[in-house]
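Page 37, continued from 36.
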């Protein structure tokens, strides 16, 4: 009997020993790892959001191009569509064909909304493009003959802006220099009897050789091969109120992709690009 009991105890001891050898003592770290393995789910691919933005070719589209990799890191595919005029980029945003645009200053935007009944708003100011006076048939302002011809943009705000620049050079006097929508009809003093050729802003560079002088927006001047800093006979000062803005349709100001673009445009990367690339012809704003 004793032998039988002893045999049973030995068998039980062996079984317990084998069970212990086959098990693993888990530490708190093991428990955490196991819990993580059970709860961690495979990461889902981030959905790419497309942001369509209308822009003038120079410098706006060039600046936006530098934002492409910045937004790509945030899952935003920035699609830049270039336009050579000042109307379609706004109507395209109003109609929803574009999410935003970047080509205009606030006085032009305000006038466009008022005259076209659109509902566009500024998201943020980005840069200033000083407007300049360029030589045509006459090489300097001092040499302007009596009856000299001057080409100016024909849209309300840019024409008024051009006339203000001419007034600052002492060439004309306006009835009200606070009126940003002045036209040649508002000139009260014109000692040189200047005559004005009013054409679409984008067309002004193409007729420089046909007039004595031309007043050109910097984006169109650069697009035509002019360097505003070196080639302009006179240039707006850097405190110009005509800040170029990122624009969207009212109600979309807080769209995450649009806000991400606004942040990118104010990044050091973009500010440095503007300063280094355009050398004063385009000035970033804070």
């Amino acid at each position: 009997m004793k032998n039988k009991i002893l045999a049973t105890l030995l068998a039980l001891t062996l079984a317990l020993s084998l069970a212990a050898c086959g098990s693993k003592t888990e530490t708190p770290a093991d428990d955490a790892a196991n819990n993580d393995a059970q709860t961690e789910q495979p990461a889902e691919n981030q959905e790419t959001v497309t942001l369509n933005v209308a822009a003038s070719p120079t410098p706006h589209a060039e600046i936006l191009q530098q934002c492409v990799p910045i937004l790509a890191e945030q899952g935003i595919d920035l699609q830049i569509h270039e336009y050579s005029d000042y109307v379609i980029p706004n109507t395209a945003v109003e109609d929803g064909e574009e999410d935003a645009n970047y080509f205009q200053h606030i006085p032009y935007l305000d006038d466009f909304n008022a005259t076209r009944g659109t509902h566009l708003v500024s998201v943020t100011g980005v840069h200033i493009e000083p407007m300049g006076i360029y030589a045509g048939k006459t090489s300097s302002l001092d040499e302007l003959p009596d009856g000299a011809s001057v080409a100016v943009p024909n849209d309300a705000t840019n024409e008024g802006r051009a006339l203000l620049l001419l007034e600052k050079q002492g060439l004309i006097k306006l009835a009200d220099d606070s009126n940003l929508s002045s036209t040649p009809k508002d000139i009260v003093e014109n000692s040189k009897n200047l005559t004005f050729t009013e054409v679409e802003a984008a067309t002004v560079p193409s007729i420089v050789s046909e007039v004595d002088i031309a007043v050109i927006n910097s984006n169109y001047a650069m697009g035509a091969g002019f360097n505003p800093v070196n080639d302009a006979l006179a240039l707006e000062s850097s405190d110009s109120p005509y800040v170029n803005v990122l624009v969207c349709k009212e109600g979309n100001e807080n769209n995450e992709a649009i806000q991400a673009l606004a942040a990118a445009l104010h990044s050091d990367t973009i500010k440095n690009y503007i300063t280094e690339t355009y050398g004063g012809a385009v000035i970033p704003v804070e």
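The CA atoms of residues 137 and 212 lie 4 Å apart. Flag for discussion at group meeting. Confidence is low (pLDDT under 50) at residues 1-43.
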